[in-house]
Amino acid sequence: MKIKIVERKQTRIIGMKLETLLQETREQMIIPKFQQSFHTRLNEVNGAIGLPITYGIFIDPPNYNPDTDLFTWIAGVEVNTDVEPPLGMISYELPKAAYAVLEYKGDINSAGNAYGELYDWINNSEFEQAGSYGFEMYSNVHSPLEQGFSNFLLHFPIRHK
C-alpha cells in the first residue's frame, strides 16, 4: 500500500446526488450502478474539464453510524466555475485541502477495503481526517461487462494532528 499526500485546489463538481445506506449499496451495487447512470448523462454537462476523469464523492453526516445512517454520494465531473447544473443535477465544491491518496485496482466487491486501509494509515500517521467527506477519482469508464474490476484514486482530506 502506497499513500501519497497531495495538495488540491478547490474544485467545482456538477453531478447527480444519491442518499443511501452502506449495507444497501454493498448488497445491491447501488453506487456502481449510479455512477453508470451519471455517465449516460455526462454529455448534458456543459463546461466539463479534465475528462475522462470523473468523481464519486461521499459525504457522511455528523457522528456517522454506517449501520443505520444514510450518507450522500455524488457522481460528477469537474466543471468551470460559471457552469449551471442541468435539470436533476447539483453543484458541489470540493474544498482546497491536503489529501491522503490511495490507488485501488481490483475487484469492485473488495473496493471497500481501500477505505479501511486509508483510515488505518491516517490513524497511524502524524495526520488526522479533516472532514467527513472524501472522494474517488476515476480515469476511465468501465462498461457493465467490466463491473468486477475497479480502478480509482481514493482521497481523504487530512491535517496534521
Structural class: alpha+beta
Helicity level: 10-25%
Oligomer: single chain
Poorly predicted ranges (pLDDT <50, ≥5 residues)? none
Head-to-tail CA distance between termini: 22 Å
Strand content: 35-45%
Structural commentary:
This protein is an alpha+beta fold. Strands 1, 2, 3, 4, 5, 6, 7, 8 and 9 form a 9-stranded antiparallel β-sheet that branches. It is globular, with a radius of gyration of 15 Å. The two termini are about 20 Å apart. The model has no long low-confidence stretch (mean pLDDT about 90).
Task: Describe the structure concisely for a colleague.
It is globular, with a radius of gyration of 15 Å. With 161 residues, the protein is of the alpha+beta class.
Core attributes:
single chain; 161 residues; alpha+beta; 9-stranded antiparallel sheet; 3 helices; globular
Draw up the topology in text.
Elements: E1 3-8, E2 11-20, H1 22-28, H2 30-41, E3 54-59, E4 71-78, E5 90-94, E6 97-107, H3 112-123, E7 127-129, E8 133-138, E9 149-160
Antiparallel strand pairs: 1-6, 2-4, 2-5, 3-4, 3-8, 6-9, 7-9, 8-9
